[in-house]
Structures are given as C-alpha cells and as structure tokens.
Amino acid sequence: MIEPVLEVADLTGGYSPRRPVLHNVSFQLRPGEMVGLIGLNGAGKSTTIKHILGLMKPQQGEVKVGGVKLEDDPDRYRSAFAYVPETPVLFDELTVEEHLRLTGMAYGVAEQEFEKKRMDLLNEFQMNAKKGAFAAHLSKGMKQKVMIMNALLSEPPLYIIDEPFLGLDPLGIRSLLERLVEVKQNGSAILMSSHILATVEAYCDKFIVMHHGRIVASGTLADVCEAAGMAMRGGTLEDAFYKLVAGDKL
Ligand SMILES: Nc1ncnc2c1ncn2[C@@H]1O[C@H](COP(=O)(O)OP(=O)(O)OP(=O)(O)O)[C@@H](O)[C@H]1O
Prior knowledge:
The chain is of the alpha/beta class. It has 9 helices and 9 strands.
C-alpha cells in the first residue's frame, strides 16, 4: 500500500475552542491523486486548509504530511508541500523573475534545471513580457500566475491550491490544468478547493464534499453520487452536490 502524502485524521478544530468549525474531518491523499475539496461558502474548506498548512492547531485529531506531524519535523513537513492561496502574496519590490529565482534557491533547484523551468513556465503562462515587472505592477491574475509558477517550480510531493480559477484568464486556466495533470502523472498529489464544479469533476480523481464543517461525502464520483442517493450512471458532481447540501437551511 502506498503511503499517503497527506493524512487528516479525526480533525476537530477552528478559531475558538468552545465553537469548533471542523468536526471529525478525516481524509487521505495518495501520490498521483488530484482531489477536489468542495462545499458552500463557510463550509470549512479554508479552515481545513489552514490546519494542513499548520497555521491552526487541531483541537482533536492530527494532520500528517509526508508521514510526519508539523511538531515532529517542521522542516520536512513544510518542504513537502506548496500552497497557492486564493489571494496572491508577493513581494511588491521584487520582479517576476526574482520571485522565481528566490523559490529556485529556497528549494535548491540546480542552475541549469532552473533556467529551463523558468523559461518553460514564463512561456506557458504568457508571462515572458512581464518577467522584469515588479509584483506591485502586475494585474491580479498575473500575480496569481506568479504564485502558481513558484509552486510548480518547487515540484513538491503535495500541492494545496485554493480556488485557482477565478482570477485567471482562459489561457491561464488551461495552462494550469495541463500542468496539474502532468505533476499528477509524475506522482505528486493535489488538493484543490474550488466552486467551479464542472472543472473539478473533469479533472479530479476524487472529491471531498464538506457541509457545516463535516465531510458529508467523499471518494470517486460514483461514491459521491451514491452518498447523495443518486443512481451512479449519468450523475454529475453538481447534481450530487446539490442533493447533499440543499434541503438543509442554507
Ligand atoms: N478568522 C475567523 N475567525 C472566526 N471564524 C472564522 C474565521 N474564518 C472563518 N470563520 C468561520 O469558519 C466557518 C468556515 O469558514 P471557511 O472560511 O473555512 O469556509 P470556506 O468553506 O472556505 O468558505 P468559502 O467558500 O466562502 O471560502 C464559517 O462559519 C466562518 O464564519
């Protein structure tokens, strides 16, 4: 059995000990899996991600990345994943290329390999003309592309990507999806949170449906359809999602 890259076990957590937001959340990601994390606004997706990033401490349960907990080996834990946040965080006074170089250095990418990766990424994400621009002078989508290029440059075993499609133009979305398929084929795992269910359905192998801080369905599309009480044949993720979370007071 291949070891999971990410293991969330019986996680209960949130912003105040008296009122947890997440309740007994458990799931695993194995190498080569792309998993879609879906749920309505406030379902608990970002809070789950914050626990995985180590920004919040579990009130109960644990999170392991690459087989270790954050407190056991912080360096190993943190170097095993790249995170692409919904809102880009960049250094205003560094250029696009300087961001890439900084990431290359932080992850110890060899010079020759770095040059090739840098050129490929700048071309694929239509950022060549902007490579010398300061981050402060980029559009929102361009800033997001820099975050994505940084993550792809570091080639970690685990990618955590929060709502990547909203700021990107159609070419950017296509480049990102093509790259994600490639990194997945090379054995990385991807946890992607998104509201764009058709894209999630088309690209992810498995799904985690969250509702009010709990997982209400998980697994393949067939598993999610079954949990929603639907016939497996022909059911879409959106139909299953609607059945799982509607009916409830929204
Ligand atoms: N900083 C915070 N302090 C207190 N409560 C918070 C904080 N951030 C989020 N929450 C609460 O935690 C719950 C889950 O929110 P979370 O941000 O995880 O949802 P989400 O699924 O990521 O939603 P969205 O799709 O809107 O991004 C919500 O009830 C929200 O009000």
